Amino acid sequence: MREMNVSEKEAEEHIKSMINNTWKKINGQCLKNQSHNLLPCSFVKVTTNVARMVQCLYQFGDGFGVQDQETRNHIISLLIEPFNLDNTAKDEENKGKKKSEGYSKVQI
Fold it and tell me: Could you tell me where the Basic and acidic residues compositional bias lies (predicted)?
């Protein structure tokens, strides 16, 4: 930023542009690998997931060294807090009951 004599906003936009271009390259390589089997599928998945995790950690600033509340909440929701499948299944079941109840009221 200081070396190129640009504002913080311009530097931030440049970094975002670099990240978008890199994701385009990663996605292109993933597609190329699927059609040509250049690398083992497990290796491609692991490396792509590492890139995703790094972006998640750093997209709102330094999420590793200086954890703000937003980054901390993202990490907790991804890795620590369990996703309760029982409530989700019950919600879907209740939706199904409501639909079936509605159909039973229709008179033919």
Answer: 89-102
